[in-house]
Design brief:
Keywords: DNA-binding, Transcription, Transcription regulation. The chain is built from 9 helices and 6 strands. By secondary structure, it is an alpha+beta fold. The strands form 2 sheets. Strands 1-3-2 form a 3-stranded antiparallel sheet.
């Protein structure tokens, strides 16, 4: 599922009136006037909110003679509501990298002095090497910027770039010049 679609779903259902409509329709189909009456809102307001819910396909309508009834598409609602968990896992671990592949990349980019020969352009390889350079840092410990610079210089002279890559790639968190490792579950590799 596209991330934009998921964001749009959560923006749409993140409205109190729309949530109340969903709760009402969960008990069965209703026409617009009934929904307006139960929520104490005007018909045009209900119509606006129903159109937003129809756009994301969690509400659909059926005409019976002169009355339009609105139904909750429960399967779609459940799919969209639970897909944040699945998408989150996909986003957090975009690469499935074997240990053999990691070893091969490290051998190609780390010299005999344990220094990074160059920063690879390919994101996958860069992430493998960033993870490698985190060796020696401890989970739960806070590091000052100076300490981070010293640690990074063991591997590469451009500590500012590597430090920035640690943050941008979700390996580390920075606040007020202090650095801390993110939980391993947040790491991209």
């Amino acid at each position: 599922m596209q991330l934009n679609r998921l964001v749009n779903f959560h923006k749409t259902v993140g409205d109190k009136t729309r949530l109340r409509i969903i709760f009402l329709l969960k008990t069965g189909p209703l026409h617009g006037q009934a929904i307006a009456g139960k929520l104490g809102l005007t018909a045009p307001t209900i119509s606006h909110h129903l159109s937003k819910l129809k756009e994301i396909d969690i509400v659909y309508q059926r005409r019976e003679k002169n009355t339009i009834y609105f139904y909750l598409n429960e399967r779609k609602l459940e799919f969209l509501a639970t897909s944040i968990i699945q998408k989150g896992e996909e986003e957090m671990k975009p690469f499935n990298i074997s240990e053999e592949e990691k070893i091969k990349v490290i051998k190609n980019f780390i010299d005999h002095n344990d220094k990074l020969k160059s920063i690879p352009a390919q994101r996958k390889k860069k992430l493998i090497l960033l993870e490698y350079m985190l060796r020696g840092l401890k989970q739960g410990e806070v590091y000052l910027e100076k300490e981070m610079n010293e640690h990074i210089q063991k591997y590469h002279e451009d500590y500012a770039t590597i430090r920035r890559e640690f943050i941008m790639s979700n390996f580390m968190y920075r606040k007020e010049g202090k650095y801390e490792l993110n939980p391993r579950e947040m790491w991209p590799v």
